[in-house]
Amino acid sequence: MGQQTSEIMILDEGQAPPGGITTPPRQEKWYDTFSYIGNPERFCAQNLAKYGPIFSTGVFGGKTIFVGASQANQMVFNGDSKYTEIALPDTTMEMFGEYSLFQRPELHRERKSALKPGLTGEILAGYLPRINQTIKDGLSQWTDAVKISLSPAVEKICFEVLVPLLLGVNLDDTNPQSFEGLPVSSSNQLKSLYKTYFDGFYGLSKWKSPLTAYGRGVKARAQLLEFMGAVIQRRRLSQEEINPKADFLSMMLVSQQQNPDGVFSDTLMENQCLLQLWASHYEVSALVSSLIYQLGKFPQILDKLRSEQAKVVGEVGNSYTFSSEELKQMVFLEAVIKETLRTNPPSSTASRRLTKSVVLDGVLYAKGCTIIAEPRLAHIMPEHFQQPEQFEPARFLPPRNEGRMYEFIPFGGGVHACLGVQMAMVITKIFANHVISLFDWQLTGEASFVQFPLKKIKNNYQISLQKI
């Protein structure tokens, strides 16, 4: 007999599905991958309108089922070890590496539990003074500008925030000694390696050649791991006592000292430093840039944010540091950030492959298929969000309380939900608070977005600034 998990029926090998069961509509097409990569939002919206929130595609080869309905999303996120396994393209899996949280599912829970304290809770709260100061220092360079290129300006500050937060080192391009002992000589060189690395994630050919994005990405990954290894060695040789609450790498180094045979091998630390800096930098930069852009489109929302800030903290001076408690009280700011994530989700969630056939809500998901819970579907469904085409932060507040679990999925869900969610939200809130207290700005027309593999405003888009 098949097993019933909640409302999911897991079929035994060879077991026929119950009568009256359907399969996801739409036939896979040879050009689906190109259509999806070219514009994931358009691909999802067009197929949602024609087929509904569950449909078959040929994205990334074979049958890939896209889902957006909440129960189907829940089924995707919670199937590990029962009826799903991680299923990303081979090129992507190699870029993540053997020690990522996507590899070795039997070690996933142990690794994630060990890593989580460095990005959440008390340790994250301890990062706040440094985050505030670095953002203020970065924004001080905007004060003389008439126009800025939004994405590059935001990315620069986010990178300056995240490197010391995650690695415990300060890379100062005006001070060559800050790169002493490291195999890079500038922040731009490090960021360039990351871009090459990221470009290789979805290479269409697994050919390790300088002629392919994948081949260049593999080489960049090796160079980034060499950099992370050099950072770890420099931290060990430093005469300063390592404080486990000072930064993400310090937490791992102290844990390794306390338990040399534990989860924190040098190889795991190198890989986690590489991946956390990559994911945090791209995700946070894209989110902050989109948020500033949306506030430029909707000045009435910006006014409400300023009113909330004044109510919570009063006047914000040049030396003001926003605390955890103050950020928690800014419920409208959190709603605005969530609405930015709803309308501009940075990427899809991780893909799963069905290791068993399952039936949910009368639909058969066959063993061997790949299945993706896609926020670009879930976030535009009227069943989940009233008037989804409107930018309305109040939808996340009472009495509407939209954005329930498995309907709002910008960071995935289940055991593979993004590890750095809390840190990303904290940095974005602090960045937003300082920006709205320092500047007014106007947009210079509609922004164009890079659509894949991560949605972000293109580097050439500018905004006009005025210091308040």
Structure description:
The protein is of the alpha+beta class. The protein has a single domain, classed as Cytochrome p450, CATH 1.10.630.10. It is built from 16 helices and 14 strands. The strands form four sheets. The chain has a five-stranded mixed beta sheet. A four-stranded antiparallel beta sheet has the order 1-2-8-9, covered by helices on one side. The longest helix has 32 residues, at 266-297. The mean pLDDT is 92.
At the fold tier of CATH, the topology name is: Cytochrome p450
| Fraction in beta strands | 5-15%
Low-confidence stretches: none
Question: Tell me, what is the CATH class?
Answer: Mainly Alpha
> What is the CA-based Rg, rounded?
23 Å
Write the layout of secondary structure elements.
Blueprint lengths: L2 E3 L2 E3 L21 H7 L1 H12 L2 E4 L6 E4 L2 H8 L6 E3 L3 H7 L8 H11 L5 H19 L7 E3 H18 L19 H13 L13 H25 L10 H11 L7 H32 L1 H15 L10 H6 L1 H13 L8 E3 L3 E3 L2 E3 L4 E4 L1 H4 L42 H18 E5 L5 E2 L5 E2 L4 E6 L1
Parallel strand pairs: 4-10
Antiparallel strand pairs: 1-2, 2-8, 3-4, 5-7, 6-14, 7-10, 8-9, 11-14, 12-13
Helix pairs in contact: 1-2, 6-7, 6-16, 7-11, 8-9, 9-11, 11-14, 11-16
Any descriptors?
Cytochrome p450; 468 residues; alpha+beta; 5-stranded mixed beta sheet; globular
Q: What is the structure about, briefly put?
A:
This protein is an alpha+beta fold. The protein is 47% helix and 10% strand.
